[in-house]
Design goal:
By secondary structure, this protein is an alpha/beta fold. It contains 4 helices and 15 strands.
Length: about 210
């Protein structure tokens, strides 16, 4: 089964981005960064999420991100599905920190349980078929609204969401153009999906 082995963010200043991610989320060993200057304006059509076990952990990670230079897109709050908030890193990447739990069960930590990459796509059904053809296994599917794939042995789970709905969930306008500023690595090889997201062939060495 195909899985995501690496996530590479393309940033203007890799050293500054590395400091931010190490300080805010402790992602120095699970995220790759590389310099890129391709034009990119507005919404980049994806979000990354850290899934945590309790609200206190979400607050701790969001607070650390804000202290390290992130900006608030959606303040952390309770909702029907749980608790969470959205921040934007200095490099422009949108991060959601969320939990399905509404109550704390222990002291706050900055631990997280999973990383989720959500791609904003034009046609969820068409993109789902594309990824199934490239070896991914569907875990959940809600018609033309949302699809989620099994993570397999990879450290990152992939989901597909309608582009405008994803922008609304992130708290940003849907308009955007230029580079997505992200590359996905996996054993499936090198290809570009229907919405312009690039995959690169990798060995299963895990996220750096």
């Amino acid at each position: 089964m195909t899985s995501i082995d690496t996530i590479t963010l393309e940033v203007a200043d890799p050293a500054a981005a590395e400091r931010f991610y190490a300080t805010a989320f402790g992602l120095d060993t699970r995220l790759r960064l590389r310099a890129a200057q391709e034009p990119s304006t507005g919404f980049r059509d994806f979000t990354l999420s850290l899934i945590v076990s309790q609200p206190a952990n979400a607050d701790a990670l969001i607070g650390a991100a804000l202290d390290a230079g992130a900006s608030t897109l959606k303040p952390a709050t309770k909702s029907l599905w749980g608790y969470g908030g959205v921040v934007q890193a200095p490099d422009g990447t949108i991060w959601k920190v969320a939990t399905s739990s509404k109550k704390n069960t222990g002291p706050a930590t900055r631990d997280f349980d999973a990383i989720v990459l959500l791609l904003g796509v034009a046609d969820v059904s068409a993109s789902k078929r594309f990824y199934v053809d490239h070896g991914l296994t569907v875990a959940k599917s809600f018609g033309r609204m949302y699809a989620e794939f099994e993570a397999g042995s990879g450290p990152v789970k992939l989901g597909l969401y309608r582009r405008r709905a994803l922008a609304k969930d992130a708290g940003v306008p849907p308009e955007g153009s230029g580079s997505h500023r992200i590359a996905v690595g996996g054993a499936a090889g090198s290809f570009t999906d229907p919405d312009g997201f690039a995959w690169e062939a990798t060995s299963r060495a895990g996220l750096r």
